Amino acid sequence: MRKLYTILLFFITLSLTSCRIITDNMVSRNINCRTEKINNISIFFDSNSYYVNNHYSSIIESVACFLSKNQNVKVILNGYSDINGGSEYNIALGQRRANSVYEIMRILGVNDTQMEIISFGKEKFHKSSDTLENDLARNRRVDIIIQH
To answer: pLDDT per residue over 31-80, tens digit each?
Structure first.
């Protein structure tokens, strides 16, 4: 049990550290905050990763800014993974991905009560007529679902 606790603590610390690095880069820039309605957004991840790539910074920043100015709007952060690995692992990975986006938006000023996290792991794998490689990449994501 102690080993499991240590591993969980390590991953939480790693997740928060990566969020801090990303948000430090975001906060240093001055952005224009959107006030009009925004659409649902997907944030994609590398395989077996819950690190949010910097090229999503402005997207997450605009969602966070919009939510900060519209306290009555809520979002659901749906975490997904590809089909590689076991169900438990992928549920946890989807959760960590959603937590990464959640922490970034929380640091940027979004109220905790405006966000909800759900992890589907690989249970809702979306398959298209494309190649398996593209299907795997499309399912490594967090969908930010805006609840207007």
So the answer is: 566 656 788 999 999 999 999 999 999 999 999 999 999 999 999 999 99
Q: Which residues pair with 117 in a beta bridge?
A: 77
Go through 23-47 and write b for each residue having 16 or more CB atoms within 10 A of its CB, e for each that does not: beebeeeeeeeeeeebeebebbbee
DSSP annotation of 140:
S
Domains and CATH numbers, the chain: 2-147 (3.30.1330.60)
- 92-141 pLDDT, tens digit each: 999 999 999 999 999 999 999 999 999 999 888 877 867 888 888 889 99
The pTM of the whole model exceeds 0.90: no
Give the integer Cα–Cα distance in Å for 60 and 42.
10
Beta bridge partners, 74, equal 147
Query: How many Å apart are CA 87 and CA 107, to the nearest integer?
Result: 30
